[in-house]
């Protein structure tokens, strides 16, 4: 529902109308009266997010906001709720994240719709981070972790995902964990490519069935939070995308050329998972 609301709001900002365009695609969840109601709510309170608008629509219509992926997540949780800590210890949790390597500019950035005045109801304050960011990837398990990998410039394709992550990082780690090891990813498009699935099957790497939009339950999100806090509190930042650096959290980040770039000092000498 949030995707439908966000798409309709972007369509209104671009074309100044919320009329539907006929075409193929999945069945729409919201009806024409729902569109009008959402448009009125968005005009009255411009600071509302897509999730808040979807919640208001669900309360007004009495229809539960539970699409198919929510039901699949519930089914997945019911199946795995009886797992023991020993069973979860065989899982390698992986994920990628984009980290900003420069501090917050501490400037109050505002956004308003063109043609509107400056009352508080028409202004949305936004946080603005200048400078480049790093797209990183890592994997953690109960008794270990992989290196923190920093992607070079460009998009992450299925070929890059296999050649830069799965083969050099995931495969050795899974083999070291034993025959009961399970590989978990977050259902991104490169990870679901036929090329990657064929490689995992050829190397007999078991995968965990992970529902879509279930990133909040991935324990590696705590790692990204700690790493982001350390970077935001550091006074020294690399002037360009590094090829290799040590974060000070006990994690070494490298790219494909493996060249040493810089080191940062931090009070946190290591990162522990328990």
Automatic annotation (TrEMBL):
Gene Ontology molecular function, alphabetical: nucleic acid binding
Alphabetical list of Pfam families matching this protein: DDE_3
Coiled coil stretches, renumbered: none
Domain Tc1-like transposase DDE span(s) in chain numbering: 91-233
Protein name: Tc1-like transposase DDE domain-containing protein
Species name: Araneus ventricosus (Orbweaver spider)
